[in-house]
């Protein structure tokens, strides 16, 4: 049977990844528990890499997008990594300490329990294109803090960045500690098939299912960070301008290409016109023209066409599409689509059925908050919800009745930026958590250890069972 050049390349990539994993597992077995000093050095080295290459990293990401706002890259990529490492360095000593646990069976005559966090071994990381530094190096922070080694597979849409990482990262970390792999076609599924000690995937739900199925062949535990249709819920009591300013900032950040962005917004029906008026004013001031360097391009032509098709579908079904910036609605040469608001999109429209992942904000009106709750709960559990209300009881009611991966109250997205909060989905929006101490735990084995006392009463409970054993067991079972 004839083997195509693509198949040959895929086989070669699979072999290289298998060899890399074997090397890292051997290194782990030779030195399974790095010291605090060694982990601290790894974290400082990772931080130094980011600081040394800050400008080059921003430029590479922008080249991959066509145009990526430098300020957005600094805000959402560089700062979270540097600051997250600082947070981890402050807390790592405490995280590594064995935990004391109580001993059952009447204190077991001096025995003691401990839970010891130990490295898992080698962790695989599959990185999406939308925040490729954040979603590769933030996980590496907690992977290294837990004492592991890592293999990282980048996205096919991050070509320039991947080349930079593959060229420069080996100057900071040896291959038995960290290796970066590029997507050349078919690499992702082969990567998922490797027998890692843990696998972290960030991306779409459809791809996440394939990754999980491949990892299951090795019983490899997975953390899946997926997406979904995260809603903002603006309540009657909340100031409309404040809600508009905060929702619109998050929605058009990175041109809406964020898994935790506001996918759509629910507003009291009588406030929709007011919100649109405010949106025209606010967005035009932030992005006075489509060519603004502060407004990011859509990542590729396929995504660009998908978003235009979704807008056309909404119009064809009677929705009203409102452009929020002057000038052209889109520019194919730069893959930019002007910020849009959509009113009266029908339930079966593409915009309401699929995650949008672009600069398009459907507004949905309601008269009773119960109808919003029912609509959200009728779909998959979202990665986040964003309630806007100054009524604490009303906010708590939404938290109780609408399950999601995370929540930001009276703002959007910012729960993701808190180092002490676990980040992760629920149901169709993902499984597992990382960030902060929860990240350290995810990439550690919390190993239970029972230390028997010098004297053990268990010798009196061995067969053949007599009256003493019977009395002892009766005492313990009171």
From TrEMBL:
Per UniProt, which keywords does this protein have? Answer: NAD, Oxidoreductase
The active site is formed by 225
Tell me the InterPro entries matching this sequence. Answer: Ald_DH/histidinol_DH, Ald_DH_C, Ald_DH_CS_GLU, Ald_DH_N, Aldehyde_DH_dom, Aldehyde_DH_NAD(P)
Q: Which residues form the Aldehyde dehydrogenase domain?
A: 11-447
Pfam families of this UniProt entry?
A: Aldedh (PF00171)
* Matching PROSITE patterns: ALDEHYDE_DEHYDR_GLU
What protein is this chain from? Answer: Aldehyde dehydrogenase
GO function terms (MF aspect)? coniferyl-aldehyde dehydrogenase [NAD(P)+] activity
């Amino acid at each position: 049977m004839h083997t195509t050049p693509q198949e040959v390349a895929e086989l070669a990539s699979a072999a290289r990844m298998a060899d890399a994993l074997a090397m890292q597992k051997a290194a782990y077995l030779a030195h399974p528990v790095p010291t605090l000093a060694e982990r601290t050095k790894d974290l400082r080295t990772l931080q130094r890499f980011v600081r040394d290459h800050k400008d080059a990293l921003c430029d590479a990401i922008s080249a991959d997008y066509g145009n990526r706002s430098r300020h957005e890259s600094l805000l959402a990529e560089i700062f979270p990594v540097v600051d997250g490492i600082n947070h981890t360095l402050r807390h790592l000593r405490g995280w590594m300490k064995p935990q004391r646990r109580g001993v059952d069976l009447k204190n077991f005559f001096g025995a003691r329990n401990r839970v010891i966090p130990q490295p898992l071994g080698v962790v695989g990381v599959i990185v999406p294109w939308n925040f490729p530094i954040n979603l590769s190096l933030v996980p590496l922070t907690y992977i290294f803090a837990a004492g592991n080694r890592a293999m990282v597979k980048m996205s096919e849409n991050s070509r320039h960045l991947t080349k930079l990482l593959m060229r420069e990262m080996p100057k900071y970390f040896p291959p038995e500690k960290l290796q970066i792999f590029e997507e050349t076609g078919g690499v992702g599924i082969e990567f998922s098939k490797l027998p890692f000690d843990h696998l972290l995937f960030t991306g779409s739900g459809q791809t996440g299912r394939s990754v999980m199925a491949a990892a299951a062949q090795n019983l490899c535990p997975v953390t899946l960070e997926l997406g979904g249709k995260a809603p903002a819920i603006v309540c009657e009591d909340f100031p409309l301008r404040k809600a508009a300013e905060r929702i619109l900032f998050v929605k058009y950040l990175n041109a809406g290409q964020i898994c935790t962005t506001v996918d759509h917004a629910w507003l009291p029906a009588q406030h929709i016109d007011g919100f649109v008026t405010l949106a025209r004013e606010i967005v035009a001031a932030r992005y006075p023209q489509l060519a603004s360097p502060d407004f990011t391009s859509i990542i590729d032509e396929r995504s660009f066409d998908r978003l235009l098709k979704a807008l056309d579908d909404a119009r064809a079904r009677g929705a009203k599409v409102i452009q929020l910036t002057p000038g052209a609605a889109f520019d194919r040469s730069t893959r930019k689509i002007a910020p849009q608001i959509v009113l009266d999109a029908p339930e079966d429209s593409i915009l309401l059925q699929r995650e949008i992942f672009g600069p398009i904000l459907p507004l949905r009106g309601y008269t009773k908050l119960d109808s919003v709750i029912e609509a959200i709960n009728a779909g998959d559990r979202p990665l986040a919800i964003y309630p806007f209300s100054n009524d604490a009881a009303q906010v708590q009611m939404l938290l109780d009745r609408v399950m999601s991966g995370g929540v930001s109250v009276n703002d959007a997205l910012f729960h993701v930026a808190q180092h002490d909060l676990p980040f992760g989905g629920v149901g169709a929006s993902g499984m597992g958590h990382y960030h902060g101490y929860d990240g350290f735990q995810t990439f550690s084995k919390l190993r239970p250890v029972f230390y028997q006392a010098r004297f053990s009463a268990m010798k009196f409970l061995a067969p053949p069972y007599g009256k003493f054993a019977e009395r002892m067991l009766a005492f313990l079972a009171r």
